[in-house]
Amino acid sequence: MAAVIDNATHPAFEKLRSHRIDTLNLDVEEYRHKKTGARHLHLAADNDENVFFVALRTFPMDSTGVAHVLEHTALCGSERYPVRDPFFMMIRRSLNTFMNAFTSSDWTAYPFASMNRKDFDNLLSVYLDSVFFSKLDPLDFAQEGHRLEFETPDDPSTDLVYKGVVYNEMKGAMSSATSQLWQNLSSHLFPTTTYHYNSGGEPDHIVDLSYDDLIRFYRHHYHPSNAIFATYGNIPAHEHHERFEELALKRFDK
Known about the structure:
This protein is α+β, with helices and mostly antiparallel strands. The protein contains nine helices and ten strands. Strands 1, 2, 3, 4, 5, 6, 7 and 10 form an eight-stranded mixed sheet that branches. A two-stranded antiparallel ribbon has the order 8-9. Helix 1 packs across helix 8 (about 210-220). The N and C termini lie far apart (about 45 Å).
């Protein structure tokens, strides 16, 4: 069965090109948002499982894990959803077939998939608001990044130790020989670029990350002009564009 193609174009977007891939039974369509320059790649396919992700170019120039901590903290509440951890609430309550977020050496991505249109729209609203209008509360930064706690929380006579979701995660990740080998190799192969650093964060350097550093990184990188949207499935591209405009992009027109 052929992919469902809809040639309608939302007025806020311009269509750049399209390409048929017969072996995958889909059409690749590329669009650009006129006001912000955001790119959208739509894979039009006759499939009820619709997929979305927004990816941003993120280039950390140290090993404090700023991109990784930001990925976690951005999902802890936003302007429209000022509640504790809307991301994890949706994992438990939605009909998603996939939900996650990823930090790599030079990009950060927020993907999800669902076979239910209402659920897809709900997740899209949460994701777009979390990415572009995150509240980035200092307490969320302390939880996800790093903080000092008594070794025994209810005993102030015990030593102070570092805690934090990303801090603990990277202590585990960097304890493996392969991770140490790859990071040391990269640091010598790429002495002057972002690949020299550990984008996930080195535990000894994560504790140097400040809240102000996080905010500066967010304001510099998390903008539609630095973003690529991608969708797959049988929802037409112009319907995605309408939702992108309504939920996020038109708020950057001012």
